[in-house]
Write the structure tokens for this entry.
Amino acid sequence: MPTVEITEKNFKNTIEKPGIVLLDFWAEWCGPCRAFGPVFEKASDTHTDVVFGKIDTEAEQELAGAAGIQAIPTLMLFRDGILLFRESGALPPAALEELVSQAKKLDMEKVREEMAKEHVHGPGCDHDHDHDHGHDHAHDHAHDHAHDHGGAGHVHGPNCKH
């Protein structure tokens, strides 16, 4: 499947889709980005069940800033809306293949359970713990909110509000 151009307008909807989404933050002037481009494109042809998105950091400076991009290329891999991998630097073809293969093998229910166990809620936590939006959080909502929200076990992404 050809790569998809990701912008501030379609970023959130793209990463929240069910399945795997692999994003490449890049820029035209970046030599390593240009060298990695064909590797990314070939992987998108191989894994037609994965969304491969490219974010031009020059055209999408606000999105790159919100995502905390400090070096390019940077890859982010999401599965079912959960950030599973983030790394700066171009991956060789075999490493990119292994990354996608590992993401496909993950038991996402176990991932969600582990994230729920590790997430620490504190005074700055702005999650609405008493709402129902169609899925089970797999953890007890009777939290003691007197803990520090240091972020242990919580992945902070571009849409994180704390």
Remarks:
- Residues 130-157 have pLDDT under 50 and may be disordered.
- The two ends are 35 Å apart (CA to CA).
